[in-house]
Amino acid sequence: MTEVTETLELKLVEPNAHKHQKLCETKTAYQQALEAAFDAGCTTQSAANDVVVNYDLSGYAKNALKKYVPQLCGGSYHAKELHNDHPVRFTNEGVRLDHKPQNAIEWYIKIPHHDDYNLWLPAQPNPEQREWLEALHGGAAKMGECRLFDRDGEWYLHVVATRDVKERPSSASETPIGVDIGEASLLTVCHRNERGSPTTPTLWNDEGKQVRQLRETYFTATRRLQKRGSERIAESYGDSLWRQIDDILHTVTSEVVAYADQFENPVLVLEDLTHIRESMDYGAFMNRRLHGWGFAKMHAQLRYKATEKGIRVETVNPAYTSKSCHCCGERGTRPDQATFKCTNSECWVRKYQADVNAALNIADRYLSGESHHREHTGDNDSAEDGGRLTGPQDSQADAEAQQLTLGTYAS
Ligand SMILES: [Zn+2]
How confident is the prediction for the chain on average, in pLDDT? Predict the structure, then answer.
């Protein structure tokens, strides 16, 4: 096991006047306490404690100061003077992360103000660090010190996070495992055996159904509650439904990683989300509201869980993975959502389970070397096609399903 550390950046989303005021108060009190303890030349935690105890700050900020000031005063930093834009430091116990995928801004962060008073603020993470947030939220990563600072009037929180990852000895032959994320089957995995034959396809159909039902319950029930003016009940009911969805996603992503873990040198191959995001021409609303959140969450969970086990994750261009035949490569049709039909008369494939066909194409795309990095796939055609997983343009069946979904969920 190796421990890896990363500093996660979260931008606090437009705190209202009240919260902004509270953040400013914290910053000012912290700055004053820091200066006082620095001027007093505190070289021990107890000396620093005697100074900072008098300031109107949360215990988490005081504890961080007690550790930090002795380092400045003759400790590891040997600072001559203080510059005046130190971030406010908090020990990890004071900061909490919450995820509400049903909201426009999905992530929330709790920042201590003073002892009995905390601020919950919506926060926008760096999208590249989503996997870390899922790991923190899922308990697989640990939170370290946090630092609050403002930059040109915007507030940011930096969170130091650590987690254990496994190094796996790499052997010559890889087993690429294609992972298809869909609506009917939440996830589908398949790979080829040493003779190249598709083997052990696994679908999570029931979980797909459960998630759809929970989501539907969420939208109908919360709307009804909101109409009755029961905003608070709607919110807590919604939170519990989304926790159930999250539990299902965690179960499924853990099972996918366990599937991969049986093989000697597994590589989980996913579709590149960037393409999917960019190809969504009906916007962030649909993407997030209906399915986008699920992709992002499952990808992030798969990534951190795979890394924990030393399993590599690669991404490929998603264009046509559901429309091409895994056997002959011809563009086929989708008579219904579960079925792929090869139209090449020379090909032995007639009808094939559509999600398994897609998973095989995804695995094969990695093998063919047409993998991941965005700069290599800049000339792809996915702007028209790559949206199949979230978009309605994949097939008539999908389009109809999407219309139904739209009718049910759009508000
Ligand atoms: Zn074919």
Answer: 83
